[in-house]
Amino acid sequence: MRSGRDILVYAADYNKGNAPISIIFDDLLAINDQLSNLNGNALDIIIETPGGSGEVAEDIVKLIREKYDDVAIIIPGWAKSAGTIIAMSCDEILMEPASALGPIDAQITRNGKTFSAEALLKGMDEIKAEVTSTNNLNMAYIPILQGISPGELQGAKNALDFAKVLVKEWLIKYKFKDWNHHSTSGLPVTVQEKEQRAEEIASDLAEHSKWLTHGRSIKITDLERMKLKINDYSKDVELADAIRRYYTLLKMTLDTNIYKVYETVESQIFKSLHEPNQPPAHKPDQGNIAVFDVNCPNCRSLYKIQANLGVEKPIEKGHLEFPSDNILICPKCRFEINLSQARQQIESQTGIPIV
């Protein structure tokens, strides 16, 4: 796509919310596997993600940066939340007007509800301020205060600071590494100026009260107002055409039962959801096993099925063994799921029988 640069694709389908489309620990193995197939000196990452674990995003960046000094990220669609954190670790960010990043304000799940860590902390500060000014505690606040421990408040603060610290560190180390002179005055850029700019950008991206919702789209113009340099690839007709053509093919791939794609020019890993009677859409992993996902059509529970090819192997933790009679009994609701076509697809693709 861009001459002389390796390409790594990490993409998830926003429309398959019943699948694990977020950035999670399992992604590390697939990304590391795809990186092992690359041998160039520079990397372009094409990303499409709703976000997910900031800790896993940090580990993904470490894997990439151990291999490459020159990394660019291409965002043809959305890279929200932890995807935005990854973008801030790159030397170059390529977007077009339709592309979007998202706020990095930490989200906390409590009692089945997800909300902003910043909103929680600011709410507590407002209660403190009201009590201080009136010397009286509104009785309506008591149930709220009883349900929140000091440890939870500290956890919310730590989660909020984590994303900001990562973004600030990576902007200084990577995005700003070649920012040596001011574009207007031509004067040298000091370390203190890089730190200040990085702090301002990280704080802006993490400010829930500015963006109001975690899913808000942050466009090129928003980022440029933060004084973050963005490469608008729509101004390069040839490059824009290549990216859009690939993105169309990627979306067509995700319009199937595939919910995640890890891809290089030479290799692909797909993760798929499978309804009954649908075969898995990818070839087995090395080690003579094939692992694929099955959704129970009755209770919608998701299971990972391990098919041993040719020889018996231990069933990995969290996996269910491919049934010898092709009928999987849902452990939760006891519904019978017919995997006959899955067996046929795997054995025809590999030429090896399931044992």
Summarize the structure.
By secondary structure, this protein is of the alpha/beta class. It contains eleven helices and 16 strands. Strands 9-5-3-2-1-10-11 form a seven-stranded mixed sheet. The protein has a three-stranded mixed sheet with strand order 12-13-14, with no helix packed on it.
Q: Based on DSSP secondary structure assignment, what is the total number of beta strands?
A: 16
Class from secondary-structure proportions: alpha/beta
Percent strand:
15-25%
- Main β-sheet, in a few words? 7 strands, mixed
Number of helices: 11
Fraction of residues in helix? 25-40%
CATH topology of the largest domain: 2-enoyl-CoA Hydratase, Chain A, domain 1
CATH classification, class level of the largest domain: Alpha Beta
CATH homologous superfamily annotation of the largest domain: 2-enoyl-CoA Hydratase, Chain A, domain 1
Q: List segments where confidence is low: pLDDT < 50 over at least 5 consecutive residues.
A: 275-286
Number of domains in the coordinates?
3
Task: Work out the radius of gyration.
Answer: 24 Å
CATH architecture of the largest domain: Alpha-Beta Complex
